[in-house]
Design goal:
Blueprint (H helix, E strand, L loop, with lengths): L6 E10 L4 E8 L5 E8 L3 E7 L5 E8 L4 E5 L2 E3 L6 H13 L1 E13 L8 E12 L13 E5 L1 H9 L6 H15 L5
Helix pairs in contact: 2-3
């Protein structure tokens, strides 16, 4: 048994949507008590810390209905069935920014909201960016604006909450740590 493991005794599907599924799990807690857990099932996603040869961070601004505002983010997107994360990263970078990358390096995978969702995000670093002549189109319901900012500008965007999501705040922290160590050369 895993430390503090909760054993699922019953799963009740609630919603099966285009992006997520919602279920209620009945669980037995480590102390023998029972509880209910509301869980969002998600296929997973990727995000890309794209850095230009000039050391600029490539970002996109888009409206996020869940938080009712526009926010500035690193390029990201949902995994398609059977798609390898590195291919999703290449596709999303191209669709959202018009860039390809000569070097795409896996950084890490982390849970985005483990209190209620099983989504994991695969994070990549893109270097050696080049412009795609005939870039892929954005999804029909996607509207983004491209930005290229210095580390200092990105840090201000975190401070004033234009960068509002965890993956992008993490990207800014990662970039600061690695520029400081000169690891992006």
């Amino acid at each position: 048994m895993k430390k503090f493991e909760e054993k699922t005794t019953k799963t009740t599907p609630i919603y099966d949507g285009r992006i997520i599924k919602l279920q209620i799990d009945d669980v037995t807690l480590p102390n023998g008590q029972v509880a209910k857990r509301e869980i969002i099932k998600h296929p997973g996603a990727v995000a890309v810390i794209a850095v230009t040869d000039e050391g600029k961070l490539v970002l996109v601004e888009q409206y996020r209905k869940a938080v009712e505002r526009s926010i500035i983010e690193i390029p990201a997107g949902k995994l398609e069935p059977g798609e390898e994360p590195v291919m999703t990263a290449r596709r999303e970078l191209e669709e959202e920014t018009g860039y390809g990358a000569h070097q795409l390096t896996f950084l890490q995978t982390f849970a985005t909201s483990p209190g209620f969702a099983d989504e994991v995000l695969h994070l990549f670093v893109a270097r050696g960016l080049y412009t795609i002549d005939n870039k892929a189109d954005l999804d029909e319901d996607e509207f983004v604006e491209l930005l290229e900012v210095s580390l200092e500008e990105a840090q201000v965007m975190v401070a004033d909450q234009r960068i509002y999501d965890a993956k992008t705040a993490f990207a800014v922290l990662w970039l600061a740590a690695n520029l400081e160590k000169n690891l992006l050369a």
